[in-house]
Amino acid sequence: MSSGYLDSIANITVSDEIQLAIFCSDGFIIQKESPADHQQYWWDIEFHDNNSTEPVSLPIQDGELPSPTEKTFTKLGYNAGIDQNATGQAHIYISPNTFNLSQSPSVDGRNLADIRTEGLKADKNFNNIDYLRPLSRSIMRELFVAVGGLLDPNLNMTRVIDIPGENTDISMFKDCIAQKNQNPAPITIAECLTIVATGLFLQIHDTPTFWSTGVVNRDTLRAEEPGNSSSQDITFTLN
After folding, report:
1. 51 phi and psi, to 5 degrees?
2. pTM of the complete model
3. Within a domain: residue 177?
4. Is residue 233 a part of any domain in this protein?
5. Residue 127 included in any domain
6. What is the extent of the structural domain holding 145?
7. What is the pLDDT of residues 124-155, one digit of tens each?
C-alpha cells in the first residue's frame, strides 16, 4: 500500500459531530406513501428535527424494492425542509444476515485484535483478508459511511458509499483493485476503506505483515499472490 494512497485517506474530510444510533431490530423502518409524489417508499422514522426535536421520517429506498433490512446499511440524516433538519444524525442497521456471516465456518469471525495477537489460522483460506469477517469489520464499514458525512447537508448523498452503482458489488479485495482509477474512486467506497484499515491493523504478532495482494504467507507474513496459495476465489454477499 503506497504512502500516497494512505495520504489520501488521511486527508478525507469528515463530519464534525455525529449523533449515532445503531439498531439491531427493524422497528424503525416502515413502508408508506410519500406525501410528495404519492409513491411507496421504505422510511427511517427515528430521526428528529435538530431544533424542535419533532420526529422526522426520511426515505431509504423505493417501496417496490425488497425491505432494506435484508442488508446492513447506514442512513444519514439531512435537511429535508422546514422542521425536518436531521443533519448530523446517523443510523446504522445491523442485519441478522451480518451476524450469520460472522459466525459462519467459512470465515474467521474472531475479533481483529484476537487475530493480530493469536495469529492466522492454519486451515482453510484464513490468510486471505476477504475471509477475515468479524462483526466489528461490518460495523467499521458502516462507520466509514457515517463519519464521511454528506456531500451537501441538503441532499441525500453520502461522501463515502457502500456500493458505487446499482449493479455493482464491491465486497472483495480484487473488486477494490479493479476499481482503481475508476469513478467512484476506492477512497470513497466503504468496503475498500475497510479493507485498508483491516490490513493496517492486522500486523500479526506485531510483526510487519504485508497485505498488498490481500493474501499473506503464514510463515513469512509477506504478500502472496492468491493463485499461489491455498486461497480460492469466493463471493460474499455483504449483508
Report:
1. -95, -50
2. 0.86
3. yes
4. no
5. yes
6. 3-228
7. 799 999 999 999 999 999 999 999 999 999 99
